[in-house]
Amino acid sequence: MNKTCENLAQTRNLIEQLIGWAEGQPRLPVVYLQEDRGSFRATPAPVLEVSYHSDGSAIDIELGPYRYRSVPGTVLILTDYSGYRATPAGPSSVWNLCLRTETETPVPGVTDRPLLLAAHAALDERLVDRFRVAAYGYRQDRLFQDLQLKCEVLGILIAAAEAMVPTADQPPERSAATIAALRVIDRDCKKPDLARADVARAAHLSEAQLARVFQRDMGVTPMAYLRRVRIDRACRLLRRTELSIEEVGRAVGLPTPAHFSRLFSAVQGQSPRAYRRQL
User: Fold this and answer.
1) Which residues, including other chains, have CB under 8 Å from residue 34's CB and lie 6 or more apart?
2) In this structure, which topology does domain 3-168 adopt according to CATH?
3) How far, CA to CA in Å, does 134 sit from each of 121, 149, 157, 194, 229?
4) Which residues, in sequence order, are CB contacts of 129 under 8 Å at separation 6+?
5) Nearest to 155 by CA among 213, 198, 95
6) Rg (alpha carbons) of the chain, rounded to whole number
7) Per-residue pLDDT tens for 20-45?
8) Which of 8, 116, 166, 260 has the lowest CB atom count within 10 Å?
């Protein structure tokens, strides 16, 4: 593994440069936009690729001098000039946006050298949703297609930047209490009666102490994080299963349909039913 690939500040900075560049383009040179779920070998091409490893197993990437193991939650930026190989250890999901670099206005970050940047980001269903909407639109013959696709690609880039916490705001490491809290939330989020006291007890802190430590490390309270985990899992079930809305709610610890719908709408901006209809 080449650790020099992993640089949060550089990756986020390049994403922000791409946002500024894309805003000034009348038409974006998108050549590929979709989800990949297996091994992949890219032939050499004048392309800059922005990818989000959203789910599944680790993926070994070989590109020029770089060897990197990506895990879910990783944002990747790479050039395909020399081609590359991506080999997952098992089932995985990666969303890819590829931009042709042979344009009148140079694409930021592109040189004649191989490029592979990586940064860990949040496991964010909103970023996946941005990719999904854009990938669907990319395949359509729509009125004002260039403008609509540009807006959707900007949505991907902005969501990717937001998913990456700036280095200055990120603590050097999470406390043992926060790690314990994350584990119990991940393990028990499907239990409807999981309470603040249960999470604090697992972290060996009072509720007030855990709230302060968790907020410092994660930027949100433990219960806000629990809500986000539940809704992210609900999104995944709505996409990948035929469970009813009520069954999805029960599976993520929200057995009351009205409460599940209200919470889902508050986080996603639409009801579970509307979310599923757009897929």
Assistant:
1) 95, 96, 135, 138
2) Jelly Rolls (2.60.120)
3) 20, 7, 11, 36, 24
4) 235
5) 95
6) 20
7) 999 999 999 999 999 998 887 878 88
8) 166
Report how far residue 35's alpha carbon sits from residue 97's, in angstroms, rounded to the nearest whole number.
9
Reported as a single tens digit per residue, the pLDDT across 119-142 is 988 777 789 888 988 998 898 877
Phi first, then psi, for residue 145 (nearest 5°) are -55, -45
Identity at 141, one-letter amino acid code = D
Reported as a single tens digit per residue, the pLDDT across 68-81 is: 999 888 999 998 77
Is the pTM for the entire model greater than 0.70? no
Superfamily, domain 176-277: Homeodomain-like (1.10.10.60)
Q: Is residue 88 within 8 Å of 38, Cβ to Cβ?
A: yes
Interatomic CA distance for residues 187 and 100, integer angstroms:
42
